[in-house]
């Protein structure tokens, strides 16, 4: 269900916090998304979506709510890349090293996707069985140790090593790391009260 030419009343918050004068009216389409049932059996509440486009057809509305549902896939993918593959774990010192690490993580995630047909479903007791070829990257990673011996490997096994002793305890760092600008130049006030207090 969708309503066209609905406009929200803007307030002086977030992007409009520094705006002076009359605020504009922004037309768009309001979409009400309802589902028949939820997996747990509880009563589903409607979800309200907003699109800044007007004059949408039924197919356009379908694209909007389907894109909203796809965000769960993106959130779970980012969560898996961070927690399972360790995207944010290393303390990298340069932007170039961060870019290289990101590309390595993308390559590892792609490799897991490509091994979907070869991996067995090693599921936890509380997880539902998955159809063949429909395993998630986290489940494929679980079974990767069984697949790896059968893959062609262009390199030899890594030599075992242990980390060095590092800097003696209590000594100062004589070579501090270079700090890079992250791009944020101005700190904006977080509330209307703070903005009014900072105004001359």
Q: Helices, strands, pairings?
A:
Elements lengths: L1 E5 L21 E6 L13 E5 L6 H26 L11 H20 L22 H6 L1 H4 L44 H7 L2
Q: How would you explain this protein's 3D organization?
A:
- This is Transposase IS701-like DDE domain-containing protein.
- Residues 155-200 are annotated as: Disordered.
- Residues 181-200 have a biased composition (Basic and acidic residues).
- It comes from Streptomyces antimycoticus.
- There is one protein chain.
- It contains 5 helices and 3 strands; from the N terminus they run βββααααα.
- It has helices at 58-83, 95-114, 137-142, 144-147, 192-198, and strands at 2-6, 28-33, 47-51.
- It is flat and about 70 Å long.
- Strands 1-2-3 form a 3-stranded antiparallel beta sheet, with helices on one face.
- The longest helix has 26 residues, at 58-83.
- It has 200 residues and is α+β, with helices and mostly antiparallel strands.
- The chain folds into 2 domains: 1-69, no CATH class; 84-154, no CATH class.
- The protein starts with a strand and ends with a helix.
Short synopsis of the structure:
The protein has 200 residues and is an alpha+beta fold.
Quote the beta fraction: 5-15%
What oligomeric arrangement do these chains adopt? single chain
| Count of distinct strands | 3
What is the approximate shape?
flat
Taking the sheet with the most strands, its summary is: 3 strands, antiparallel
What is the spatial order of strands in the main beta sheet?
A: 1-2-3
Structurally, the number of domains stands at 2
**Overall average pLDDT:** 80
Order of helices and strands: EEEHHHHH
| Radius of gyration, whole Å | 25 Å
Low-confidence stretches: none
Helix content: 25-40%
Structural class: alpha+beta
Distance N terminus to C terminus? 48 Å
How many helix segments?
5
